[in-house]
Specification:
- This protein has 230 residues and is α+β, with helices and mostly antiparallel strands.
- It has helices at 27-34, 54-71, 75-89, 105-121, 138-146, 186-195, 197-204, 215-220; strands spanning 4-11, 14-21, 158-161, 181-184.
- The protein has three domains: 4-34, no CATH class; 54-131, no CATH class; 135-220, no CATH class.
- 40% of the residues lie in helices and 10% in strands.
- The strands form two sheets. A two-stranded antiparallel sheet has the order 1-2.
- A hairpin with a 2-residue loop joins β1 (4-11) and β2 (14-21).
- It comes from Lactiplantibacillus argentoratensis.
Length: 230
């Protein structure tokens, strides 16, 4: 991960993001993955430079407790392990969640994402950490769908369509990339249909708009359909 600063520039009623890199990028790598050194697409997000929050620290150690319960590995060992993974992911950047930390909210979110990725990948049960998980974030909803984990209880989930598929319509003939979905177990899937989306959202304090998944993710989780790009 390369550090950069971005400036918003206006020119003739058009807006441009100008990115200043701390070091020269690997142009050969850029050409390999994008096919060009001159023009390519990038994913970016706005960094939250505020100091890392106590809530993030509590979530981090709650998740480590869940991993300890599942694996028996000491939380101090797990902390060092994920701090090391963070350094590798950010090309050597240090992180701390102590009271006097200089790490930002965005830095802490990267660390938390690494832990949550690990737990989803290895099917580590969310218990203590589940109560603190930021369930309003699309990232968490995406991971629940990707790993078929219920966003409410963490049990094995089905894919619930927010955009209802009409009766008699074959789901294998639907382009699911155009529909909003959620990951819910059978129990909570039935409940949202019984009490309605608004009451369900109020009860569990979760969003019920759903998210859209790309074709690759949909095929990976076994949701067959007729996709426009096929």
């Amino acid at each position: 991960m390369q550090r950069s600063r971005t400036q918003l520039v206006e020119d003739n009623h058009r807006y441009y993001l100008v990115t200043m890199l701390d070091e020269k990028p690997n142009l050969d790598h850029i050409e390999t993955v994008s096919g060009s050194r001159d023009q390519f697409y990038m994913d970016w997000e706005l960094a939250d430079r505020r100091k890392a929050r106590p809530q993030q620290r509590r979530l981090f150690f709650a998740l480590l407790t869940d991993i300890y319960t599942w694996s028996g590995m000491a939380t101090d060992f797990l902390k060092d392990l994920f701090y090391m993974e963070y350094r590798e992911y950010t090309a050597g950047k240090q992180i701390s969640l102590s009271d006097g930390t200089k790490s930002s909210v965005s830095d802490a979110n990267i660390l938390l994402d690494l832990v949550i990725d690990f737990m989803f990948e290895w099917r580590v049960p969310f218990k203590e950490g589940y109560k603190l998980l930021p369930r309003e974030q699309e990232y968490y909803l995406f991971q629940c769908c990707r790993h078929r984990v219920c966003m409410i209880c963490g049990n094995r989930a089905d894919i619930h369509h927010v955009d209802v598929i009409g009766a008699g319509l074959n789901r294998t003939h639907v382009d699911h990339t155009k529909r909003h979905v959620m990951a819910l177990c059978r129990l909570h899937h039935s409940e949202i249909e019984q009490i309605g989306a608004n009451a369900f959202s109020a009860k569990y304090h979760v969003p019920v708009d759903g998210i859209k998944l790309d074709k690759k993710t949909l095929k990976r989780i076994g949701l067959k359909g007729k996709y426009s790009s096929d």
